[in-house]
Amino acid sequence: MGVIKRSEVRAAQARTAELFARSGIVMTPEEIANIEVATFGLGDLEKEGLELVTYVNNERYCAKELVLFPYQTCPEHLHPPVGDDPGKTETFRCRAGKVLLYVEGEPAERVQARLPEGSEAYYTVFHEVELAPGQQYTIQPGTKHWFQAGADGAIVSEFSSTSRDEFDIFTDPRVERIPAIVEDVE
């Protein structure tokens, strides 16, 4: 399950670049060529996945653009302590579309998001924060969270402390943060 074809990566990159352009977010050709397509090894990018561009990630801070296709969901996870670091603090600022962010806390009476079919058991926090363009929310280290785009997809700027994605803890044990890309066979 943890593989994606090179042609699928290219198609997702093109679609992501189109969303940036439509939203007026200028990307360099190098940034477009290096758009990361995260399938999380779950085999259905449209349902559970994320596209991202990392501008900077060093020992002090990180800045990224996160793109979600319509109703695409980034699976539930948290950022644990790593060595002396308490874990990543991240601020999400919605740039385009609508984002439904779920964090620990008082659960919403009725969740707006569509839980990905077959993965419902791996979504456990339901305090709902709806972000429209210009709105932002800060997630503290060690806080379980997940997020989903609305009907038009979404672009979210992430400003955070150092990102160490390889240490993220996902609720779904099937998640592979860095799945393999395979070349298409003609």
Keywords:
mainly beta, two-stranded parallel ribbon, single chain, 186 residues
Strand content: 35-45%
C-alpha geometry? globular
Number of helices: 2
Whole-number mean pLDDT: 94
How would you classify the quaternary structure? single chain
Q: Work out the helicity level.
A: 10-25%
Q: How would you characterize the largest beta sheet? A: 9 strands, antiparallel
Amino- and carboxy-terminal Cα gap: 21 Å
- The beta-strand count equals 11
List unreliable stretches of 5+ residues. Answer: none
Radius of gyration: 16 Å
What is the chain-wise order of helices and strands?
EHHEEEEEEEEEE
Structural class: mainly beta
Can you characterise this structure?
This protein is mainly beta. The protein contains 2 helices and 11 strands, in the order βααββββββββββ. Strand 3 (50-57) and strand 4 form a beta hairpin. The protein starts with a strand and ends with a strand. The mean pLDDT is 94.
Secondary-structure blueprint:
Layout: E1 3-5, H1 6-22, H2 29-33, E2 36-38, E3 50-57, E4 62-68, E5 73-78, E6 90-103, E7 127-131, E8 136-139, E9 145-160, E10 169-170, E11 180-182
Parallel strand pairs: 1-11
Antiparallel strand pairs: 2-3, 3-4, 4-9, 5-9, 5-10, 6-7, 6-8, 6-9
